[in-house]
Amino acid sequence: MFKADDGGAVGLRPAISVKEESSMAQIGYADRIKMLEAPIGRVRCVLDTDSYNEIDDQFAIVQMLLSADRLDLQAIYAAPFHYSPLTENPGHGMELSYDEILRLLTRMDVKPEGLVYKGVRSYVGPEKVGRDAPAVDDLIARARASSTADPLYVVAIAAISNVASAIIKAPDIIDKIVIVWLGGHALEWPHTAEFNLSQDVGGAQVLFGSGVPVVLLPCWGVVSHLTSTVPEIELHVEPHGEIGKFLAQRYKEYTDDHVGWSKQLWDMAPVAWLLNPDWCESVVTHTPVLTDQVTWSVDKTRHPMRYVYRIHRDPILKDFFLKLKHKYS
């Protein structure tokens, strides 16, 4: 858990400059509300993931691939992360995540060619610099092939650096994509210094200031009870194929003490919203301002976003368990 920086009299820095805002695509209110509704039919989507940072990204990837009847997963992007001593820098974290994605796909007999892309090696940062990467280029191309009426859904379960870089480099895409992001904490939380958000505060400020449609799933206070236990994983995951064994291994090796222990699987929540919005209750509200102190600030004149305020843990995991069993039994 990162601690919010409460030292110094740092003012609120705009997420996007006036010049940048003027170049952004404009979305009418009715179109924006329509884009924030749960999609109907099969959903074209991409996934942005720091899959080596935690164990829940792996579950999210597998659930997406097992849900091809609902989700048309067109690309997986490796996102940067830095967590000492696990990684040397954010670029090293991205490389480790890329390799982890390949390990998952191998166990599911899914070919990575044309599906998996390396992401940026540095954060957007407080200077809000768009970074270069194959993932950024791919996202821009897929977004430009989409439209307001048929947007591309970007499931983001990591630092938002790849997505923010694409928005900075190609601001015309914001009316063609919907970002479904697990990031920050509940709007009423004392701070929002959650790992994904804290990794790249500047990138998150770009996201919330750009005007792109966002579905926000906060961690503490909302998604925080999406957890499982070793007995549940051993019963419903481990017996099912090489991928089941791999997921169970990742889950159990996280700690040596499994007594009275449960582990978060938070990254499954954005996938769940696309699979069935009834599992993730939400409202449309004003997009918050993300301050440099890593807290939420309120401005009721800002554009709306969709805010998930409650999730239903049981049907999310039941969906995953049954799909895994059906595929690998």
Describe the structure.
Helix 5 (134-144) packs across helix 6. An eight-stranded mixed beta sheet has the order 3-2-1-4-5-6-12-9, sandwiched between helices. Strands 7-8 form a two-stranded antiparallel sheet. Strands 10-11 form a two-stranded antiparallel ribbon. By secondary structure, the chain is an alpha/beta fold. It has helices spanning 18-23, 29-35, 56-65, 90-107, 134-144, 161-169, 195-199, 201-210, 230-236, 241-252, 268-275, 313-328, and strands spanning 43-49, 71-78, 116-118, 152-157, 177-182, 214-217, 227-229, 262-264, 280-286, 289-290, 296-297, 304-311. 36% of the residues lie in helices and 18% in strands. The protein is globular, with a radius of gyration of 19 Å.
Shape: globular
The biggest sheet, with number of strands, parallel, antiparallel or mixed sense and barrel status, is: 8 strands, mixed
Helix content range: 25-40%
Order of helices and strands: HHEHEHEHEHEHHEEHHEHEEEEH
